[in-house]
């Protein structure tokens, strides 16, 4: 009898849907700062609102891994740069055009079940991302811009509210810790003028969406 009860408990423990997929609308809010060589100043990076798709696999009812996929476009310009060396003002915002970011991110998560009916499921997570910078548009001021792809870290928290055992609504917040080296080719403004910069983007990513388990 004891063996039968233990077998039933083990079956119940492993009887759950291991996959879930979510479609979210996300707001990406950079918390940016930069060290800019030569002309000084800081950087401003625009916010973005885009769709995001993610997949989660549950190893147990509590432990899971999530893959997050999405891409964003951001306008970029410097703030308060000194371009007097090329005949400009001592405080000027240089338009650096736009760039698109593709930051696939994997997080390891722990899910909680504070309610007996398990309809409310908060979670926390941490992981890594590899950000690819592409489709760079340099704008009308400088000749060209190059961004280095970069590895960063991610922290995450959120919750699912279950409609039933398949469908749910999700709220999610992530913080990416992301830094890239940038090289601005301004040789069209002055011979040999290449401006290096170290840019911290560190965006908050706030999402709301729907999902299903299977």
From TrEMBL:
Protein name, as recorded: Outer-membrane protein y4mB
Pfam families from the UniProt entry: OmpW
PANTHER family given in the database record: OUTER MEMBRANE PROTEIN W, PTHR36920
GO BP field: transmembrane transport
UniProt superkingdom: Bacteria
Organism: Flavobacterium orientale
InterPro entries named among the record's database cross-references: OMP/PagP_B-barrel, OMPW
GO cellular component term of the entry, any: outer membrane
